[in-house]
Write a structure and sequence with these properties.
single chain, 359 residues, Rossmann fold, five-stranded antiparallel β-sheet, elongated, 8 helices, alpha+beta, binds adenosine-5'-triphosphate, ATP binding, ABC_SmlMolc_Importer, OB fold (Dihydrolipoamide Acetyltransferase, E2P)
């Protein structure tokens, strides 16, 4: 187990003033932690991971493993295990030969190697698969072989780059639970790259949400969900409504805002928000924290339903609340059967769940 530190790490691929792929990233990942880099395509997650692996050297900044500077150390000297999206297995070798590869390179004895391969295969629930050929395995099984191959060398750190992308939805969910179980058992510090926020939320101890090469927020799944730092994080994690509302009062951790035609409401706010009466605040309201009401009930925001989407667990309603608010998405568990597109409706926000975000 080892901790990882990225200090002011940047990566530019060309000298010609193009935007940095990774721009001044600062991260500290604890020993044994499962840490995820999350963000949309092109935000710099893979480049960050590749710098930790040593495949790219940063243009600027430092990377440390357990306090030791590894910024310019060759990948094979870093003692990391890597798992890729496309598995990168050797198709002409058996499962056992694939898993044993890293041990062979390290000149581990045949007996020891065989023992460790069996142990690694058991770890990923593939006991008895050693003599199978790679093409005889399903995608999920191949990904578990890739994981066993990374784990068998007992790396100081596990680096996983979108390892579940090639699996179907059901298998993705099963395999993510598996990966986390295996990582917990092994206690290996892990950095996981994904653009799938549900995956990041389900698996991670902490998440760094990235956009355009920069880290927008670092926090536990609960923190990034309930207290998003920016409008981008609020919208990227789950689904959120970011409302622009006039501030009517403010203190250190609470901001009171005026709702369109519905009085005022208090929203949680991060310390140092700097908002004052008369400013406009951006307030994030999750769809499940908005309740339906009658259009003529007192103190509700009035709007008209423009879309209905049944998802099984809840019904998502899109409600047009007029020029001031635009469209708001509501996730309602119980929707009266008579509500339909075109209907007038009232909305009530849950004050305890509102959160002020930065632009
Ligand atoms: P994805 O989820 O699509 O893999 P990502 O968040 O992992 O995206 P990166 O692959 O890290 O993003 O890319 C970040 C930026 O750096 C992108 O604009 C990309 O075009 C650029 N980039 C990545 N690798 C190279 C390279 N080898 N040479 C030049 N530009 C690169």
């Amino acid at each position: 187990m080892i901790d990882v530190e990225l200090e002011s790490v940047s990566k530019r691929f060309s000298r010609s003033g193009e935007a940095a792929a990774v721009d001044d990233v600062n991260l500290t990942i604890g020993a044994g932690e499962f840490f995820t880099l999350l963000g949309p395509s092109g935000c710099g997650k893979t480049t960050t991971l590749r710098m930790v692996a040593g495949f790219y050297f940063p243009t600027q900044g430092h990377i440390r493993f357990g306090g030791q500077d590894v910024t310019r150390l060759a990948p094979n000297k870093r003692d990391t295990g890597m798992v890729f999206q496309n598995y990168a297995l050797f198709p002409h070798m058996t499962v056992a030969q694939n898993v044993a590869y890293g041990l062979k390179v390290r000149r581990v004895s045949r007996a020891e190697s065989s023992r460790r391969v069996n142990e690694a295969l058991a770890q990923v629930h593939l006991d008895g698969y050693g003599s199978r050929r790679i093409e005889q395995l399903s995608g999920g099984q191949q990904q578990r072989v890739a994981l066993a191959r990374a784990l068998v060398i007992r790396p100081r750190m596990l680096l996983l780059d979108e390892p579940l992308s090639n699996l179907d939805a059901k298998l993705r969910e099963e395999t993510r639970t598996e990966i986390r179980r295996i990582q917990r058992d092994a206690g290996t510090t892990s950095i996981y790259v994904t653009h799938d926020q549900a995956e990041a939320m389900a698996m991670s101890d902490r998440i760094a949400v990235m956009q355009a090469g920069r880290v927008q927020q670092i926090g536990s799944p609960r923190e990034v969900y309930h207290q998003p730092a920016t409008a981008f994080v609020a919208r990227f994690i789950g689904r959120s409504n970011v409302l622009s509302l006039p501030v009517t009062a403010a203190d250190t951790t609470t901001v009171e805002v005026a709702l369109p035609g519905a009085g005022t409401i208090a929203s949680g706010a991060p310390e140092g928000h700097g908002l004052r009466t008369g400013d406009t605040a951006l307030v994030s309201a999750r769809p499940e924290h908005i309740a339906l009401a009658g259009p003529d009930d007192p103190g509700v925001i009035r709007g008209r339903v423009t879309a209905l989407e049944f998802t099984g667990m809840a019904t998502h309603l899109t409600v047009d609340i007029g020029a001031e608010g635009g469209e708001v998405t509501v996730a309602a568990v119980d929707v009266p059967g008579r509500v339909d597109v075109g209907d007038r409706i009232g909305l009530r926000l849950t004050a305890e769940r509102l959160w002020v975000v930065r632009p």
